[in-house]
Amino acid sequence: xxxxxxxxxxxxxxxxxxxxxxxxxxxxxxxxxxxxxxxxxxxxxxxxxxxxxxxxxxxxxxxxxxxxxxxxxxxxxxxxxxxxxxxxxxxxxxxxxxxxxxxxxxxxxxxxxxxxxxxxxxxxxxxxxxxxxxxxxxxxxxxxxxxxxxxxxxxxxxxxxxxxxxxxxxxxxxxxxxxxxxxxxxxxxxxxxxxxxxxxxxxxxxxxxxxxxxxxxxxxxxxxxxxxxxxxxxxxxxxxxxxxxxxxxxxxxxxxxxxxxxxxxxxxxxxxxxxxxxxxxxxxxxxxxxxxxxxxxxxxxxxxxxxxxxxxxxxxxxxxxxxxxxxxxxxxxxxxxxxxxxxxxxxxxxxxxxxxxxxxxxxxxxxxxxxxxxxxxxxx
Length: 380
Fold this sequence. Notes:
23% helix; alpha/beta; 380 residues; 3 domains
């Protein structure tokens, strides 16, 4: 075990040790002067030099210790290497609990945020297995052994097998995890266009696209107004065809959770390409803004500059721009996702000694009060 101070500057409070010393020195003024008649006629002689003397040593020592302990508490003492090894069993929600080893000496936990005990209720919702495995490996002591019980298929993975600092007993059982449902198409029922008069011709292509993705027998959800018109309420998709900087009201609307498609000469330039033509040139770029997205065309909505407007798949292409991006696949067979070794070894977390030191300070305070108020204490 290695003792350390997490906040060494707290030891500056040791300067307060001068307080009890000053108090005990000041108590010398309590000495009473008594005149004796037989001595008052004697000639005054030089008084002998008095030496520094402290009274009530037990009380002084108790007060000095109390102040020193408070200064040490402020310095946040801790101990590294106090954690022992032991055996840990982490169970992925959805695994067969009957296959979990029943070892009374082992720490049996759910592989879930906070790593609750296995006796607790099964955690609900999707679990980020990969991230939790790395977190548990970093928090466990270096000598602890780890067994992970997983169902045959797991969700919440990423593109790389986790590489941990210790070998893991990877136990595969029956069962299934609760995966996050794949989002359906998020196209709102309304495509709201804000355009200046000189760009009225672009409306025909947008209106045709809305008609193309509208189910037969239903009216197209299409709205076209000048830029000064109020912005649509959620849920809606906005097409902003006015040139120049994006107004603050539009940016706030997007940040609140909307999606806006901007003209080629409007708004900021985004870096993430979301639509390319047949030769790979960018047709639209996107970037997040708050809880929403801004999509910016790279060409004017004119067939001469953007012949894709006349292609049969333009309605589907336009709709795909407004659909929320689908998450990457996160399900994998457990047999193919067994963790690798060779990961970084993290130092074990320090054990905070402040709670225990607080108990010692409380006990020392009781002793100091007992010495200060006891009957045995007399005048110095």
